[in-house]
Amino acid sequence: MKKLVLAFFFTISLFASGQSLYIKSYGNKKEKAIIFIHGGPSGNSTLFESTTAQKLADLGFYVIIYDRRGEGRSADPEAKITYAEAFEDLNTIYTKYNLKTATLLAHSFGGLVATLYTEKYPQNVNNLILAGALFSQQETYDHILNSVTKIATAKKDTTQLAKINAIEKLNKNSAEYRKACFDVASENNYFKMPNPTEASKKLYNDYEASDFFKTNIRNKNAPLLFYKNEKQNNIDSRPSLNKIKKNGIPIYAIYGKEDGIFSSAQINSIKGIAGQNHFDLLDNCSHYLFVDQQNQFLRNIIKWLK
């Protein structure tokens, strides 16, 4: 019997700073809670909210969407864009929704936020799901530059090779370096699924025609603030993940086989941490796996959490 699912929207104030946090919940609050943590810095939850939040709620979950302080729709000129602020935001959500525990569903940079939060507040997290999530930043940047170099060399693209050479001379702990690495990855279609399906094309098209796309706000200063104010700005979170697993919190990992920002060695390492039964690698799928292969993505969530 199909459940009647109600979506509730309200803005809450963070007591710590007095600023407003964009937050929306989908589904029945009596169901298992899932908090989606978006990418960035400078990201937002609009794509996930538009395409996937309600569908996940329809499957029997209480899905909470938010944009971190100073990012997306949670405008705050005083935000420092640090992990500490991100933890405060999450703790406020737990308090406001009277959550004792929740599953953290983390995408891209959100994986670092969720991992460090789980390590610090293990009592608040009953499952950690890494969905195309970062976990070893420098290894990701190295893979991007090495793989793009091979492509440019094969094409004899001297302009691209010169650009890569310039990137390699940048400070590796800088917003400029991070942006440059992801820019060349994007130029080489590392974030796009190779063969879009009719279902994925419809999801992307519907998103671009929606009000969510109109509020796809990107704070260009967020990465600069993050690298200025956060000491842990280029990390490998695998030691934290191993600690979390040792403490008995299940870790699940789902990645796209054609997500160009991760090497096969990285994928194998995260599979080793999560475990065979807690891991899936989706075919014809890149970075935005909850859109590229939505049905498979949702099936995994059900299998793991139900």
Automatic annotation (TrEMBL):
SUPFAM superfamilies: alpha/beta-Hydrolases. Transmembrane segments: none annotated. It comes from Flavobacterium saccharophilum. The lineage of its organism: Bacteria, Pseudomonadati, Bacteroidota, Flavobacteriia, Flavobacteriales. InterPro entries: AB_hydrolase_1 (IPR000073), AB_hydrolase_fold (IPR029058), AB_hydrolase_sf (IPR050266), Peptidase_S33 (IPR002410). It comes from the Bacteria. Belongs to the peptidase S33 family. Residues 33-292 form the AB hydrolase-1 domain. GO terms for biological process: proteolysis. GO terms for molecular function: peptidase activity. This is Proline iminopeptidase. One of its GO terms (cellular component) is membrane. Keywords: Hydrolase.
